[in-house]
Amino acid sequence: MRRAALLCLLLATTAGPAWAQEKPKEAAAKGDHREQMKAEAEAAWAKPSVEEAAAVSHGAVTVAGQRIAYTATAGTLTIRDDDGKPTASYFYTAYTRDGSVREQRPVTFFYNGGPGSPTIWLHMGSFAPVRVTTANPEYIRPAPYGFGPNPDSLIDKSDLVFIDALGAGWSRPLGDKTGKDFWGVDQDADGFARAILRYTSKFDRWPSPKFLFGESYGTLRNPVVAAKLEDAGLSLNGMVQFSTIMNYGVRQPGYDQNFLTLFPTMAATAWYHNRLQNRPADLPAFLAEVRAFTSGPYAAALAKGSTISAEEKAAIARKMSEYTGISEAYILRADLRLTLPRFQTELLRDRRLAVGRLDSRYLLNVTDANADSPSDDPASTAVTGAFVATFQDYATRVLGYKTDMPYRMTARGPGFDWDWKHRAPDGSGTHLMPNSAADLAYTMRTNPYLKVLFMNGYYDFATPFYGAEFDVNHMLLDPQLQKNIRFTYYDAGHMVYLNPSTMPQMHRDLAAWYDDALRAAASSRPPARPEAKAAQN
Questions:
Q1: Looking at residue 3, what is its pLDDT?
Q2: Would you place residue 17 in the very low, low, confident or very high pLDDT band (cuts 50, 70, 90)?
Q3: How many CB atoms lie within 10 A of CB 474?
Q4: How far apart are CA 282 and CA 527, in angstroms?
Q5: pLDDT for the residue 535
Q6: What is the rounded distance in angstroms from the CA atom of residue 509 to the CA atom of residue 487?
Q7: Where are the alpha helices (DSSP H) in 451-502?
Q8: Rounded CA gap, 56 and 70, in Å?
């Protein structure tokens, strides 16, 4: 027994350490496997490259009876800071007319808004040589989607460059930069300005006439970018403000201006849905009357606040009801201040329908007929699937752009916190909420040749046409410079191009405007500045 016990003790002291050594080996093996997996994932991580990519293809489209051959380039633009350090990679798609003379050929830079939206909407829906087929106003049916040559493309007037915002589409920060370095009014505009300057230098477009085309938040961005480009020595020929919002300050609680801004669009919406007792035949004439009421009696009534008399309040409510189809009692309970969500659900409540925000012609079947706001925007959900699927197929199969990075439909997400502060170039200090109409006025005074076209949909609640008119009227430009501004209106909502019947007219309006802008640049003398005229007198 004693000998057996000693033998067991000996075995324990010799075998124990060998057994214990197996665990570290297994742990080390597992650790090596995890490191290997991490290394493989790191190697396969699809990241943006500092080296600029480009996929070149060719196509042709017939516009106004003329066959136009073009080159399409889908790629990236690497922007750098003032020290030459790469900071971001911007994805773009450019369409350039073959055989054109670059000194005479305009180039137009397009972007959508958001903020944080890619430019898929303008690219696939408006004036590129190709276009998604849309109807007016209805939901686009599931695949297969209509897509093909765009007979209303602007390729007959200008080369076209569509650029995605940073963090959206295939645009990404580089190096130690993150989205936060670009997500703000001034930061975003600086990035776009640098991307435009990079394209201009890379493709030798400095002698070319240049234009900006922004939609929605892109119209707030446009004046800020224009001022930055002007400071960098790039003077623009023109700017298209498509569904405009330049002033976010008036949307803050406690201000009455936004109720005024929305009212003419409410009247247009009631007119469209036949909710007026004595519906006029002519919408533009009707809206001229509504504008006069809005800027006159309605604005005066709201300015009085709680000091307004009961008699005046009742009179204003009667007129508002006449123009919108909303009952006087409802308007009085709202203190003459109709909010957009309540109007959307109240106008057609008896039919259990709500009207859209982006386009009030679109209708939403509501679950709760007593709801005070719609649960969705039917104008947005109606088209998203068709645009996304079509672009994904077109970018890879036709344009030939290859990447494993996901195409982001928005930069919004965890960590997205937009910096709304803005320092205007006119010396007015920092705006806590931006009003880039100040930037536009500054740039127009600096560059008296700059032409600006405001294109508006009557049924757009996201960026109502009256808001653009109000902001322009308060830029306080000299009468000579006011002549450089033009407004056009269409039977459509926010994304005017969704209405196919508007496309030919928009093309005609834009073609005439481009011709006018180029003639102005070719003239021998600029418009007289106010101080120059004063000196002459």
A1: 52
A2: low
A3: 13
A4: 36
A5: 52
A6: 10
A7: 465-473, 479-482
A8: 11
